[in-house]
Amino acid sequence: MTASNASAARGKAAPTKSPARSARDSVFESRLARHHDELRWLYMELYDNGDMFAELIDRMRRFSDERSEALRKLDIVREQEGAWYRSQDMLGMQMYIDNFAGTIKGVEDKLSYLERCHVNYIHLMPFLDTPSDKSRSDGGYAVKDFRRVQPGLGTMDELAHLASACHERGMSLCMDFVMNHTSEEHEWARRARAGEGEYMSRYFFESNQEVIDQYSRDVPQVFPTTAPGHWTYLPELGQCVMTQFYPYQWDLNYRNPRVFNEMMYNFLYLANQGIDIMRLDAVPYIWKQLGTNCRNLPQVHTLVRMMRMIGEVVCPGVALLGEVVMAPVEVVPYFGTVEKPECHMLYNVTTMATTWHTVATEDTRLLRQQLDAVCTLPKEYTFLNYLRCHDDIGWGLDYQTLRGWGQEEVPHKRYLNDYFLGNIPGSPSRGALYNADPVTGDARFCATTASMCGIEAAGFEGNAEAMEVAVRKDLMLHAYMFTQSGLPIIYSGDEVGQVNDYAYRDDPEKADDSRYIHRGQFSWELVANIEQAGTVQSQIFAGLDELERIRREDPVFGSEAAWYPKDYSDPAVLWIVRECGEETLHAVFNFSGASKTIWMPERARYRNLISGEQAELETFELPAWGFAWYERQ
Asked: What is the 8-class DSSP label of residue 630?
């Protein structure tokens, strides 16, 4: 080789990597090596497409390279810490950006308030770009661009800045990752509607009426009243497109590897903006197969397991939160196994619904039974506990058990809805039905926690005695939520006892969706009242503040503590025991409108965690809807 040729060869040589770049590459390759074989095996089993798998790995490497240094450091810290989302001091709050603070910048300006609430997990409700017509946005769940924020809320740069500001304060951000469908205004849908085969293959198009009929026969409807059916006819194509939720939300076809890959690229892009928890929306529905009910199919678990591994390779500081609104036996499999995990966390949906059933019936037996099942699961299985969220409350209870106690499904659902509407004598609750079916009588329910506890009714009536009971009930239910193991989350406004907002009925774009009754504008005027002793806002805010402090500081509330519901002769009393080392907590909750004399398991010395007082107890009194946290000394 001549000198000139040698010089040319050296000029074409790859540039020397910096030590920092080499270290980053080494970390990525090490993480990939742990998962590569299983990831490839699952991908090829599902898609049998080596080229698409190679592309996926290449793009994962690229997203890893684009991850900021600050997020890389956070990844390492969380990898070393392990299940960081199970920390004893974790407390979540769920909010719509516009309702809470107007914009993403507005949320950043309110971080000091959230710190005052002891919140370190902020769930921002859907903020990605959606149709401007709110009646076709499904509250943000009809996404038309996964890489653009709704213009009225801000920009992706502002989201990344908010995430960075949260991380500096020890806070984390959660967002909804809508996997099952896109808006009909998404680029893929627009190009599919124009007849482009590449994009039509990303959805489910069908012209065969027999196939359409079979799907309609085998697959349960999601919204049989407000959005009946599974298909929407497109006259310009002479075909139907699958729309299991609403006609303007087109179901994605995950049998096409291009869909999975592209959605994973969206997932990683959002993770690189600083998102810490990805809430996987409607995850049980994402795989469709003719001849099945298209729910909880094995391929869904394959997809979620692959997502978990992809995250652990590229962004291991990000956790997956699964939204699985199913019976407990169908929920638990979404944790995967300890050896092959899927979701990091799951919503404790059934326990939430059963809690309100318990309020309406003053009977804790079903709740005890469910808590008994939950507490026997591996401690690695982390539930997100809540009293209410942005969505309705569906009465998906264990009717097989209830039937044995003389409570049939249809009349019991009707009773629950009547109770929470305030139609049952003695009920202080107020709210609205959602998706009511006049034929079957079935319906779901919507309201804020405060309104369901009676704060709205007591305030309207000016009834001070009823207000005292309503506030006590509200705090009791939050104490009960904090006593469970898992991550508690409060809906914005519940910390100040905000009641239902009926203004949605006057908005044509919202009037048909009663869920807006509990999605009202956050009232900063109520926040001002927390400084005024004796106000409802002061009582609830201060009460929650004390409960949160105790839960943060006492080891008996730690994620490693053992816990279980204790049998007690009175069905209106729920008794939970938590044990950690030498410490034993007796948490007792009165789910009734009558005061109770509670007998301790033995005469001994106990400390009241709320008052700090110590005494030798054999019995104690619980007022109506009251609770006690007693720690044995």
From this structure: E
